[in-house]
Amino acid sequence: MLKKMEQSAGDILGYKVMGTIDKSDYESLDAEVQSLLDQNDQIKMLLDMTEFKGEKASAWGKDLNFGKRFHKKIAKMAIVGDKEWEKWLTKLVDPFYAEEGKYFPVEDSAKAWAWLGEES
Questions:
Q1: In what order do the strands lie in the sheet with 43-55?
Q2: What percent of the chain is helix, strand and coil (3-state, nearest 5)?
Q3: What is d(CA 110, CA 108) in angstroms, rounded to the nearest whole number?
Q4: Quick one: which H or E segment has residue 15?
Q5: Per residue in 38-78, pLDDT tens?
Q6: What is the CATH number of the domain that holds 111?
Q7: What domain range is 106 assigned to?
Q8: What percent of the chain has pLDDT over 90?
Q9: C-beta separation of 78 from 112 below 8 A
Q10: Which of the residues 6, 101, 104, 120 could staple to 108 if both were Cys, CB 3.0 to 4.6 A apart?
Q11: Are 49 and 86 in contact (CB under 8 A)?
């Protein structure tokens, strides 16, 4: 499940990624991202992965399509987490999901929001 975070504002969207992600999560995400892009040339995103458990195989196509569709429209993506593999996940952000990606440990989530707010 993706839960939009209340800190989301302007051209910045933040989501708490919880449990197991399925196709319907991407359908909702696509709609919200497109809605914000209708008002902005590019957006910035934060994904808090601390409660993420996995992604159903049936969602993989939607995941790849999300990256293909929005890669050049997402200027920055911050990954907030508490696991070593989440640092590695950030290496996939640049080539597939956003123009720039950066990992932040959960204790630095405020720094992640601040980084997204900085001008590129």
A1: 2-4, 12-21, 43-55, 74-81, 100-105
A2: 50, 35, 20
A3: 5
A4: strand 12-21
A5: 999 999 999 999 999 999 999 999 998 999 999 999 999 99
A6: 3.40.50.10600
A7: 2-117
A8: 83
A9: yes
A10: 104
A11: yes
